[in-house]
Amino acid sequence: MKHKFQFFVFLTLAVLIIAPCQGKTSGNSLPKVHVIATGGTIAGTSTDIGYEAGKASIETILQAVPELTQYAELDYEQFCNIGSQDMNEAIWLSLAKRVNQVLESGLYDAVLISHGTDTMEETAFFLNLTTHSPKPVILVGAMRPSDAEDADGPLNMLKAVQTIVSPDAVGKEVMCCLGGRIYEAGSAFKNDTHSLNPISEVPADWHLPHNANTGFTIDSLEELPEVGIVYGYGSNSTVALEALVNAGCQGIVFAGVGDGNLNQATLDLASQAVQKGIMIVRSSRIAYGGVYTEGGEVDDEKLGFIASGSLNAQKSRILLMLALTATHDIDTIRSYFRHGVSTQQVNE
Length: 348
Ligand code: GLU
Fold this sequence. Notes:
The chain is α/β, with parallel strands linked by helices. Helix content is 32%, strand content 19%. It has ten helices and 14 strands. Helix 3 crosses helix 4 and helix 4 (120-130) runs parallel beside helix 9 (313-326).
């Protein structure tokens, strides 16, 4: 009996010490936050020419902010360590699955993801459309590497943790924290290459916090449909569009000029692409104002195009990729762009 009891005590202690497996910074009754590290400048280290993103470990980054343990009990895992220019659909899918798994486990109150700023808006938007817990998810980054004397990562990390443990954080879209400020996925976009406060906001057509009812089911997906972006400019060549069509893209997004406009040769080729079953979305290279069928120069209904509304080209691409996993019905996809995805969509 005594042996059994000793073994039980040993087993309990072993479980307490080992789990959760990746790392832990304190043990009390504070909100539990799981940190998923992906890299970026916040994990950058200096080099002769500047710095290299995605070098420092998440352990080092968290250790630089001891105050964090006043606000949350933190676990962490090094999911990847890359500059966010190297983010891709495979990582987005596995990251979304991991966030869902963490939040569904019931062990955590929130997820914090460290991330590069270059594509943070895309990852945030993707996760907002593919995670299904109302518990808060926040992405945090920095513009100066972790070993800079005046590194901005630690303060952003502190702000992100303070934000995510607040009851006000529940029921928000996936958030981004940069320059000590908080942004939501639908409206945030990177608008400055160097400022410590590089994120701006556009008024979004729809505001849709992630929860069990919204977005797309990605559990069984290993890849996403190929969707490309064509940038608009004066004297626009059709070479890039032709290449995407010939490459077999299922969808193409235009970052058109002005109000999502395309020159005549591009319009002609794009409407031929529609006849081949390719989904065409018109967005704009202009940050503000959005692209709408009403009041514009392009007859989207007649040509079979979709207007992006307030979404920029990179976010339109994400919505179109996910939409194509659920439907090929143009009216349904138009409604996603116009009103958001408020009922969870299962893949076809
Ligand atoms: N290219 C880096 C990245 O996105 C630098 C941008 C940053 O993190 O600030 O990861």
